[in-house]
Amino acid sequence: MEILIAKYHLHPIIDHFTIALLGMGVLADVVGYVIGMLFDNRSPRTKGLGDRLSGAALVLLIPGAISAIFSRFTGESEAERVWDTIAPAAQQILFSDTGSARFLSHAVLGTYLMYAFVALAAWRVLLEIWTALKRTQLVYLAVAIVALCALLYQGKTGGELVYDHAVGTTHAEDTSRQSIVNN
Fold first, then answer.
1. Cα-flanking dihedrals φ and ψ of residue 172, to 5°?
2. pLDDT per residue as tens digits for the range 136-168
3. How far is the C-alpha of 49 from the C-alpha of 33, rounded, in Å?
4. What residues in the chain have per-residue pLDDT under 70?
5. Residue 33: which of 139, 138, 180 has the closest Cα?
6. Would you say 78 and 6 are in contact if contact means Cβ atoms under 8 Å apart?
7. Which of helix, strand or coil describes residue 114?
8. Which region holds residue 86: left if phi is over 0, alpha if psi is between -120 and 50, else beta?
9. Cβ 58 vs Cβ 176: under 8 Å
10. Distance of alpha carbon 97 from alpha carbon 120, whole angstroms
11. Helix (H) or strand (E) holding 100
12. Residue 174 to residue 72: CA distance in whole angstroms
């Protein structure tokens, strides 16, 4: 499996699905909730739109959570593969064990986000099938928005690793080889 992940660069491919599915899922849920609250008794057509958006959110969040699991495991594999070839600044972004930076490092945050979105998807399914939980929907949406913001930050740090530090690219490997030759 490690060979497939490295050969086909599966981590960034899966990450794009994760961000798109979860981002649109949370957005659809928020917009569906707002439409439902604002137009609940005014227009059946508008209320139907809110219901369809909420249904779409459920359809997006489940595969998004599954994709988050794959993102986490392909990311771990990718990090193990490139760790020794990357600059100390990139290592700090990828994984830090000092203070608050630990929680915002790419690898650690990725693990937390995987668990968070699996839990959010399960919570969303329960909201759909267990009417007694409807009163927690606003709390669910607030947590989902916070998790989405963390996911976007996660994408930003991943972009920094690739675009600022060339992690996982041929350029990074060539640069590392050149520095070894020069020393």
1. -65, -40
2. 999 999 999 999 999 999 999 998 888 998 887
3. 10
4. 1-2, 5-6, 8, 97-103, 170-183
5. 138
6. yes
7. helix
8. beta
9. no
10. 27
11. none
12. 26
